[in-house]
Design a protein that fits this description.
Layout lengths: L16 E3 L3 E3 L2 E7 L6 E5 L12 E6 L3 E11 L2 E12 L3 H15 L9 H17 L3 H8 L1
Parallel strand pairs: 2-7
Antiparallel strand pairs: 1-3, 3-5, 4-6, 6-7
C-alpha cells in the first residue's frame, strides 16, 4: 500500500500590533509593537501615505501636528503579506496642560508663577519633554537645537 504524500499548506503571515496610546495632545509619542504571526519582516507606514517609515519590531513615532492618522503595518513572509490598520488621533495641545506645566516650572523656580511664557515656549517645552522621554537625550542640548 502506498501512502500519498501531503505537503504542508504554506503559512501566511497574520499582521497584528499593539499601541500604547491612540489619542492625545500634540506632540504625541506612540509606541508600536509588532505582534504578527508567521512574519519574516514588517513594514510600518505611520501616516498610511504609501511610504515605509520603519521596519523594526518595536517603533516609536512622534506625531507633532494635530489630526487623525491611519497606521498601516504590513507583515510579510515568502508566502505573502497581510496588513493591519489602526487610527491615531492627535489633538491640539491643551492650554490647561501648558498652564499646569508653567505653574509647576514656576513653583520649582520660586518666581511666584508669573513667568510670561508664551504658548510657543510651552509647546517647545512639551516637545523637549516628549523627546527626552522617548529618546533619553540631554534636554539642554535638545532645547538648544530647537531654538
Amino acid at each position: 500500500m502506498v501512502t500519498p504524500r501531503t505537503e504542508p499548506s504554506p503559512s501566511l503571515p497574520v499582521a497584528n500590533f499593539q499601541i500604547n496610546i491612540t489619542r492625545g495632545p500634540a506632540p504625541l509619542s506612540v509606541t508600536f509593537t509588532d505582534l504578527s504571526q508567521n512574519a519574516t519582516s514588517r513594514n510600518w507606514d505611520f501616516e498610511n501615505d504609501g511610504r515605509i517609515d520603519s521596519t523594526g519590531k518595536t517603533e516609536i513615532h512622534v506625531y507633532t501636528v494635530p489630526g487623525t492618522y491611519t497606521v498601516n503595518l504590513t507583515a510579510v513572509n515568502g508566502n505573502g503579506a497581510d496588513s493591519e490598520l489602526a487610527t491615531i488621533t492627535v489633538t491640539e495641545a491643551s492650554n490647561d496642560n501648558s498652564e499646569k506645566n508653567e505653574t509647576e516650572d514656576n513653583d520649582a523656580s520660586g518666581d511666584g508663577g508669573d513667568s510670561g511664557s508664551s504658548s510657543e515656549e510651552a509647546a517647545t517645552r512639551a516637545a523637549v519633554e516628549a523627546a527626552v522621554e522617548v529618546e533619553a537625550v540631554d534636554p539642554l542640548s535638545l532645547q538648544e537645537t530647537l531654538k
